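Quick one, probably user error.
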């Protein structure tokens, strides 16, 4: 059933007029003077007038509304009719009731029927509409509640998944995957899904934004990414460094054989770096000297190359000679004289170009290397005391990346002039020492007066020799002797003081224990560990040495394989580290005078150290 039409001003005017007329008419009907109009006349007139008034208001547009108004009017008229009968009975007395019985019955039936119709057509539809509206409102509220609950649950589950992947690395308080936006016009849920979320990096105290599509693989904030990139690069470098010389040489020879299809004999190659000279045997012309970098580029035997070029050039020259003699009409002798003159002029011109080019290349190389060194000052400016090793690694990585060491092999003889044990050096140490000499020359030849890169690169060779010849060898020795590394760090707590126990559990010895999983030591680490062993001043060694089998076995290994490492040598390593190496990681200029003092101490220390292995 459609909604009832509003009565409007015209309808109200009709109703009010009808009511006033009805009351006036009733007064007349029930008065003593009335002798004309009977009750049925009154009822008929009222019904007729009501219908006319309502039809004028309705204009016969909505039949149902007309029905509704009719039963309301009938109900109203029935009530008036009933009241009129009661009043008339009261006036005439109860003795005259029989005359009004029919009127009373008719008015009651009219009222009952009107009330029934009123309830069925008016009250009941409104109750039903109200119930439907309440039900719809309840359903919408339930839908909204469910939408909000689903969004909250999805956000909660998303954070749980993030925690499973990243743990407590991040703070997830600002993570919002979805937002509930209410209902759309079609009564469906409107949920906004974020493409990015905000995470708080606890390590660096910074909030960063990450894409939802990659958040489970996120490394972290920009600082975390830089650190991870650095560690990956460092790991790759370390893996390269820790690869044995024989393994690297084998891989290198396999690669060359693929390039040259087995043409050359590489058995005499002693690989010591990409720019250090090696010997290769050509089956046609014997041994020739080159560098690995050129071999990898495909530059083989120079004699073969010259013969091949000469053959091609001779064939081409003969062809040109015949064409010129034929076209210009000159004799063979005249052509040969002219050719010699042109060749001499060309050679002179090439010599002039070569001199200028070499001078320019030398200047450009020095400028490039100095520009690379300038970047080191930025690292030093931000270096804190507890981050020295990280700063040193960054500086060395920057030197390797940006510095041109192409001609560093020329400085091998500079090292051999003061170093007596070149042949027993690790191949990488030979590179480091030649390159450090090259650094010294480059800095000396420029306006860049900070020699700290030279100091750090020199100490790299010292660090690598100690690492390979003592600590890596010691780890190999332990791996064969002790499958269970836990035995090396067992101790009796009853015999130790609290500070020694603390150091074993969470200090330097705990750090030493972790190295058995990944033997990567700094120069400072190795010096501190060696200082714990017995020496002339402390024949029984430190308390930690007496407590731990790991240190005792290190001492046994050194005595059997090397012999005693003098305590003075360990003190000299400490002096180099404290006075030159570590200060080179901090802001400030290490001038040439101090660099020369370091050079003197370093050269003596390297000779003293390598003499222990010269057996």
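Nope, works fine. Designed sequence:
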């Amino acid at each position: 059933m459609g909604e009832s039409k509003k009565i409007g001003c015209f309808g109200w005017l009709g109703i009010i007029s009808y009511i006033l007329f009805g009351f006036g008419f009733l007064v007349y009907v029930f008065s003593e003077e009335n002798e004309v109009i009977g009750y049925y006349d009154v009822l008929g007139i009222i019904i007729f007038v009501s219908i006319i008034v309502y039809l004028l208001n309705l204009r016969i547009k909505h039949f149902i509304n007309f029905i509704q108004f009719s039963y309301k009017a009938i109900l109203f008229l029935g009530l008036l009719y009933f009241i009129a009968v009661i009043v008339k009975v009261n006036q005439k007395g109860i003795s005259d009731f029989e005359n009004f019985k029919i009127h009373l019955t008719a008015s009651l039936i009219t009222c009952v029927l009107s009330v029934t119709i009123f309830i069925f057509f008016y009250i009941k539809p409104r109750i039903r509409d109200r119930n439907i509206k309440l039900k719809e409102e309840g359903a919408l509220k339930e839908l909204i509640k469910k939408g909000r609950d689903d969004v909250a649950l999805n956000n909660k589950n998303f954070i749980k998944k993030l925690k499973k992947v990243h743990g407590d690395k991040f703070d997830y308080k600002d993570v919002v995957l979805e937002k509930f936006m209410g209902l759309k016009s079609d009564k469906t849920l409107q949920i906004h899904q974020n493409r990015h979320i905000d995470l708080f990096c606890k390590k660096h105290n910074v909030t960063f934004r990450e894409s939802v599509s990659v958040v489970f693989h996120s490394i972290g904030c920009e600082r975390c990414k830089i650190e991870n990139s650095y560690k990956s690069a460092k790991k790759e470098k370390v893996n390269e460094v820790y690869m044995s010389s024989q393994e690297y040489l084998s891989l290198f020879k396999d690669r060359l054989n693929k390039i040259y299809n087995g043409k050359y004999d590489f058995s005499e190659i002693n690989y010591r770096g990409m720019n250090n000279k090696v010997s290769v045997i050509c089956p046609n012309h014997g041994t020739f000297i080159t560098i690995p970098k050129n071999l990898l580029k495909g530059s083989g035997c120079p004699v073969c190359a010259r013969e091949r070029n000469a053959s091609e050039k001779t064939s081409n020259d003969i062809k040109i000679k015949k064409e010129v003699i034929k076209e210009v009409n000159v004799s063979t002798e005249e052509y040969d004289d002219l050719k010699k003159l042109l060749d001499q002029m060309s050679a002179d011109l090439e010599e002039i170009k070569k001199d200028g080019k070499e001078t320019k290349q030398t200047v450009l190389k020095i400028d490039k290397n100095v520009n690379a060194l300038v970047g080191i000052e930025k690292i030093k400016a931000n270096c804190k005391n507890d981050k020295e090793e990280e700063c040193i690694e960054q500086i060395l990585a920057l030197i390797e990346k940006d510095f041109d060491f192409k001609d560093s092999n020329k400085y091998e003889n500079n090292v051999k002039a003061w170093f007596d044990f070149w042949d027993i050096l690790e191949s990488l140490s030979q590179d480091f020492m030649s390159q450090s000499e090259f650094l010294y020359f480059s800095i000396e030849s420029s306006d860049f007066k900070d020699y700290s890169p030279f100091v750090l690169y020199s100490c790299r060779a010292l660090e690598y020799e100690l690492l390979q010849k003592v600590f890596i060898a010691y780890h190999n020795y332990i791996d064969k002797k002790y499958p269970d590394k836990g035995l090396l760090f067992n101790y009796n707590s009853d015999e130790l003081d609290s500070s020694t126990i603390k150091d074993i559990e969470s200090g330097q010895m705990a750090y030493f224990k972790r190295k058995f999983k990944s033997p990567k030591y700094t120069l400072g680490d190795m010096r501190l560990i060696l200082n714990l062993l017995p020496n002339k001043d402390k024949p029984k060694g430190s308390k930690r040495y007496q407590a731990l089998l790991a240190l005792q076995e290190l001492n046994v290994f050194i005595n059997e394989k090397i012999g005693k490492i003098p305590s003075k040598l360990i003190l000299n390593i400490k002096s180099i580290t404290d006075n030159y190496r570590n200060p080179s990681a901090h802001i400030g200029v290490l001038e040439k005078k101090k660099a020369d003092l370091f050079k003197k101490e370093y050269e003596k220390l390297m000779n003293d150290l390598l003499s222990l292995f010269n057996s």
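Residues 159-236 form one domain.
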